[in-house]
From TrEMBL:
Domain Fumarylacetoacetase-like C-terminal: 47-252
Pfam name, any one: FAA_hydrolase
SUPFAM superfamilies in alphabetical order: FAH
Keyword Amino-acid biosynthesis: no
Native source organism of the sequence: Ferviditalea candida
Example GO molecular function: hydrolase activity
InterPro entries to which the protein is assigned, alphabetical: Fumarylacetoacetase-like_C, Fumarylacetoacetase_C_sf, HPA_isomer/decarb_N
Keywords noted in UniProt: Hydrolase, Metal-binding
Name this protein carries in UniProt: Fumarylacetoacetate hydrolase family protein
Gene3D superfamilies per the UniProt record, alphabetical: Fumarylacetoacetase-like, C-terminal domain
Length: 263
């Protein structure tokens, strides 16, 4: 068992609990529960920063395009974007599919939760600034361009499921060697590892805090692997990250999602 924090829907404070990522169970008030039986909300309280093209395969898939205008070369710093607060939902909550969109792209990512203010942090001490880790689904409407902010594709309501908990930093021996798997309706559709990151977790923190401050509660999405699977309404998505946890959500039509969250 590992120490973690969870938040139940409708309750403002969080609970410190023991969890077992291997079998998706939580010990709460002396009882053991499966994750699916708890109404979990997301614990994310800070700003969520995503990083593009941080998997070797995702960058390689661009081919020569990165060396053409407007950039004409590899990125000199992390290519970042923000997932605003309206996108965040918890484990088990539905993902809305907009009426004019046939499919959504699933973005499996390790979420690195900062534990204290970080400015100009060196790689050697970067992990000391981490509070813990969580599983994040960086949902987006499929799009081709990486040259301009994809706000309308990545920042829709409900487009950032996260959870089921934030597991403590020391429960994860090496964040740069974690297997990441995506299952759609029980079928394995994507598999990768954080060992394939271009900038590993310490370097990512060091490079980002070189030009901006990260605060306690902020979350870094380390990147989405190449070959992100597509889903439609009715599909159930499960993202597993070894030692961190499993995040499950079902895609529903947007009008059904609006009715549910309004209850």
């Amino acid at each position: 068992m590992s120490k973690a924090k969870i938040k139940l829907r409708g309750i403002s404070q969080y609970h410190e609990v023991d969890v077992n990522p291997a079998d998706d169970t939580v010990e709460l008030n002396g009882k053991r529960y499966s994750v699916g039986r708890l109404p979990l909300d997301s614990l994310i309280s800070g700003t969520i920063y995503g990083v593009l093209l941080n998997y070797k395969g995702a960058f390689a898939a661009l081919g020569d395009a990165m060396f053409e205008a407007p950039y004409k070369g590899e990125p000199k710093a992390p290519v970042m974007y923000i997932k605003p607060a309206n996108t965040v939902i918890g484990s088990g909550m539905p993902i809305p599919l907009p009426a004019d969109v046939p499919e959504l792209e699933i973005g499996a990512s390790l979420g690195v939760v900062m534990g204290r203010t970080a400015t100009r942090v060196g790689e050697a001490e970067a992990l000391e600034y981490i509070a813990g880790y969580t599983v994040v689904n960086d949902v987006s409407i499929p799009h081709d361009s990486v040259y301009r902010p994809a706000v309308s594709q990545k920042c829709r309501d409900g487009f950032c499921p996260a959870g089921p908990w934030i597991i403590e930093r020391d429960a994860v021996a090496d964040p740069d060697s974690l297997d990441v798997r995506v299952f759609i309706n029980g079928e394995l559709r994507q598999q990768n590892t954080t060992a394939n990151l271009i900038r590993n977790v310490p370097r990512l923190i060091a490079d980002i805090t070189e030009f901006m401050t990260l605060s306690s509660g902020d979350v870094l999405l380390v990147g989405v692997p190449e070959g992100a699977p597509l889903v439609k309404a009715g599909d159930r998505v499960r993202i597993e990250i070894n030692g961190v946890g499993s995040l499950e959500n079902t895609v529903v039509h947007e009008h059904e999602w609006v009715m549910e969250v309004s209850l």
